[in-house]
Design goal:
Strand content: under 5%
Distance between the termini: 43 Å
Order of helices and strands: HHHHHHHHHHHHHHHH
Radius of gyration: 22 Å
Number of helices: 16
Helix content: 55-70%
Structural class: mainly alpha
Largest sheet: none
Number of strands: 0
């Protein structure tokens, strides 16, 4: 088991990091009523306003995309109140990511990092950054962010945690054979610690990564235990709900469906492998063609 596997398994199970606290800036401790008295807070009205704006923005981001535009506005106000701080850019990035404005989100997160090396230590911010990087084609940044995130995944909500494992596994596998070890470790943890669609994707991702790594018997065992029936609707649902997205598995949808079909319908599996081979990434094209040939009927059989 490699180092990545150990980190994913041990730290995700033990919950080494506490719950997401919204990444409240340390400077706001001066106005939170815990470490300073009322007189001290009264002396810093600008700081008070800045912290209130960030707190309100964090609440709106936690509410999802419906209030993300308001969070963007609050981030801009906070940045004007105390220019040059990292926290408003983190809030801006998270809100932009919720709105699907991933190029804007990626740039906001990069700016936050230039202002503070620890700006993205919060797991929710790190997930939004990883997702934004993947969806804008910055895959090295995405893989690095997911590697930092996974040991802290227990701090995410259950739904975010499951998707994070799937996205990280897909990002690792997109780098080719060198990423299979990390992908296998990540999908194993995702299988254990995810639910519903995210868990199904983790199982299919694990089988696909194992097969690509030459561990075909184990891949078959994973499928036999967990996958029953036509996987194409399941994969289609994963695309529709965003569990598979741009840079994090959308191009692998046919491969996931094909490997799953091998457990129940070899003819459908062969056709799906052939379909995938037509658009497979260069790093997996040979594997796709080999799978299409391997699932074809043997000569002389009916």
């Amino acid at each position: 088991m490699n180092v990545m596997a150990v980190l994913v398994l041990l730290l995700a199970q033990t919950g080494a990091v506490g719950a997401d606290n919204g990444a409240r800036p340390a400077e706001c401790d001066a106005v939170d009523g815990v470490r300073k008295n009322v007189w001290e807070r009264a002396k810093s009205p600008a700081l008070r306003q800045y912290c209130d704006l960030l707190a309100s923005g964090a609440t709106k981001v936690a509410g999802g995309a419906a209030m993300a535009k308001e969070a963007l506005a609050l981030a801009g106000q906070a940045d004007k109140t105390r220019p040059g701080r990292a926290a408003p850019m983190v809030l801006d990035g998270r809100a932009a990511a919720l709105l699907g404005k991933f190029p804007d989100a990626f740039e906001a997160f990069r700016e936050a990092k230039t202002r503070d090396d620890h700006a993205l230590d919060d797991p929710s911010a790190l997930l939004a950054f990883a997702r934004s990087a993947a969806r804008t084609g910055h895959m090295d940044d995405a893989r690095a962010a997911y590697r930092l995130l996974l040991p802290r995944a227990s701090a995410l909500s259950a739904s975010d945690r499951g998707v994070a494992y799937d996205e990280a596994g897909m990002a690792a596998m997109s780098s080719g054979p060198k990423g299979l070890g990390d992908a296998i470790a990540t999908f194993r943890q995702g299988e254990r610690d995810s639910q519903d669609v995210a868990q199904t994707v983790a199982v299919l991702g694990l089988a696909l990564a194992l097969d690509r790594a030459g561990q075909k018997d184990e891949a078959k065992a994973v499928l036999a235990e967990r996958i029953h029936g036509d996987t194409r609707p399941l994969v289609k649902n994963a695309l529709a709900t965003g569990v598979l997205g741009v840079g994090t598995g959308d191009t692998e949808a046919d491969a996931l469906a094909a490997i799953g079909l091998e457990a129940s319908d070899m003819t459908a599996a062969r056709e799906t492998w052939k379909k995938y081979a037509e658009h497979a990434p260069a790093v997996w094209a040979d594997h796709a063609r080999a799978k299409a040939s391997a699932t074809a009927p043997k000569r002389g059989t009916r």
